[in-house]
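Quick one: structure tokens for this chain, please?
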Amino acid sequence: MNYVIEACDCEWERRRLWTEGIASRPSDALRRQVHSTLWFERHGVASRHQIGVDNLLWMTDFPHNVSTYPDTWKAVEHVLAEVPPNERRKILYENAVQLYKLE
């Protein structure tokens, strides 16, 4: 996904698309309007700053047979092991609380 975002921004800049009514970079629009989930994808965690930490949500895919259940916390520890606590909280629940206006 990051290469697509980078390509879109490059074309926006190259073609001076702000003169055609596209006022902001595509990456800004994506960060404002798109959220992404992850569950075992270490690449998603590794690229969290390009995607935007505020745009990532943890998922388990429960009750499907490919879910992390009943070993969800093992999966969390494996995938988010090197993520700082403040970013980890965002990915695990704070972003969902904000997105779905649960407070």
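The mean pLDDT is 92.
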